[in-house]
Amino acid sequence: MIxxxxxxxVPMDFGQQLxxxxxxxxAVRYTGLIPRLRSLGHKVVDTGDIxxxxxxxxxxxxxxxxxxxxNKYLNEITxxxxxxxxxxxxxxxxxxxxLFIGGDHSISVGTIAAVTDNDVTGLIWIDAHGDxxxxxxxxxxxxxxxxxxxxIGEGHPSLVNVGRLGAKIHPDNVVMIGQRDLDISEKQRLKxxxxxxxxxxxxxxxxxSSVANKALMKLVHLKRIHLTVDMDALDPVEAxxxxxxxxxxxxxxxxxxxMEILSDxxxxxxxxxxxxxxxxxxxxxxxxxxxxxxxxxxxxxIL
Length: 303
What we know:
Blueprint: E1 4-10, H1 24-30, H2 33-38, E2 43-49, H3 57-64, H4 74-93, E3 97-102, H5 108-115, E4 122-126, H6 147-151, H7 157-160, E5 174-179, H8 184-193, E6 196-199, H9 200-206, H10 208-218, E7 225-230, H11 252-264, E8 268-274, H12 285-297
Parallel strand pairs: 1-2, 1-3, 3-8, 4-5, 4-7, 5-6, 7-8
Helix pairs in contact: 4-5, 9-10, 10-11, 11-12
């Protein structure tokens, strides 16, 4: 399927303590994302980066000495997500495919608000973590651990109401894949919410092909699916350049097969690629893999 793709960079690292993911969009562009997408026949426009406020180092140090701060950079993240919403909504209204490159996973508050503005949309959330905390349950206060909760209408009101008031997606329309590091409170909250979760144990037992097809069947009633990929879902051997690596993740081939099956559905209508940290990477390995996965999700195949 040939698409008109608009790339939006979001070099934001306000959602977490560790610096570096703000360089993710540049690292992805450096690997030749645009010409490689064009080689598949897609029409590609790079719209540039969302403006990001300067993160003051002195203020940063002071804030992160308070490990229980539940409002770390809330205003900045809300402002950025509103900008993402405005830019993403304009792309969707043109009928184009928005490809958001982060930045930390907090950007999904804005991206998903944008792509769900006019149509009911499914969500496939690929991540080692749950990102389903609220200010009341988070141990760190880091907002990159809260975006999925905000998207379904729980957490900081300013994040819940990005773009428009209230939840952006119903839990029944969310499928999570690759989780292996969940807080106790997240486990309880995910079960209560009724979100479909395929953990690494499910992938081990059932195989990635079965998990991918079950995910699509769960969302079969929807015409559009937003795909969000946190690179820490991959095993750190494959993707070392992430801020919160967890051993035992999705393998290189499993990740590509997952992207290929999702692509074959023809329903992926928008995508996030997040949490690439070039400072922690090895020879841009993680950014290179991120680009390869984007290509697989957008139609590249072996034959």
